[in-house]
Amino acid sequence: VTCAVLNYSFLLQAFYRYVTVVYPTRLFWQRKRNQLFFVGITWSYALLFPLVFVFTGQIVYNADNQICQIPLKLSVSIILAALCVYFIPVVMTVIIYWKLVHYVHEMNQRTTSVNRITRAQRELKMFRRTVTLLMILFVIDFPYALFIFMSFLNRAPQYHFRIAYIFIDIALACVMVALFQFTDPLKQSIKQHLCL
């Protein structure tokens, strides 16, 4: 659930950046109420889609890893979970990013106001940071995806979840370091508190 919330929040940020750059005069998408609505939809989806697996009895206890999860084997449920949690939000975020880069490149070719170009470039910079964070998660969480793929062909290693969990923890630590690096006010505040 938390991975789904994280990936879909990146997708929601990407969508917001795209709308503010491509349609800056359409304030409907930028209203606080609408943003809260989209966040609510994202959280609701992330919390509700796993219930399908709970109510159909597809989640079982794995004694080796001491966790309840969908068994790693070739099944519709594991493919659906992988698609819903990782593949769909990551691919959609990359597509939005590609469209935004293409739009800013076209805007630079056309004659437009300096303020609009500056704003678009600033949003593009923020968007690149979001994609960087998403790629950190995608690359470092690759072992779990590999274990899922291995389970389709043969059988996942006995302690696959523990191994994957180490990589997930490392990914989240890398995300925190990247967020620290990207956020200047946070960096300055911590430096002041640590007297650096």
TrEMBL record:
<feature type="transmembrane region" description="Helical">
    <location>
        <begin position="76"/>
        <end position="100"/>
    </location>
</feature>
<keyword id="KW-0472">Membrane</keyword>
<feature type="transmembrane region" description="Helical">
    <location>
        <begin position="36"/>
        <end position="56"/>
    </location>
</feature>
<keyword id="KW-0812">Transmembrane</keyword>
<feature type="transmembrane region" description="Helical">
    <location>
        <begin position="159"/>
        <end position="182"/>
    </location>
</feature>
<dbReference type="GO" id="GO:0016020">
    <property type="term" value="C:membrane"/>
</dbReference>
<feature type="domain" description="G-protein coupled receptors family 1 profile">
    <location>
        <begin position="1"/>
        <end position="188"/>
    </location>
</feature>
<dbReference type="InterPro" id="IPR000276">
    <property type="entry name" value="GPCR_Rhodpsn"/>
</dbReference>
<protein>
    <recommendedName>
        <fullName>G-protein coupled receptors family 1 profile domain-containing protein</fullName>
    </recommendedName>
</protein>
<dbReference type="GO" id="GO:0004930">
    <property type="term" value="F:G protein-coupled receptor activity"/>
</dbReference>
<feature type="transmembrane region" description="Helical">
    <location>
        <begin position="131"/>
        <end position="153"/>
    </location>
</feature>
<keyword id="KW-1133">Transmembrane helix</keyword>
<dbReference type="Pfam" id="PF00001">
    <property type="entry name" value="7tm_1"/>
</dbReference>
<dbReference type="InterPro" id="IPR017452">
    <property type="entry name" value="GPCR_Rhodpsn_7TM"/>
</dbReference>
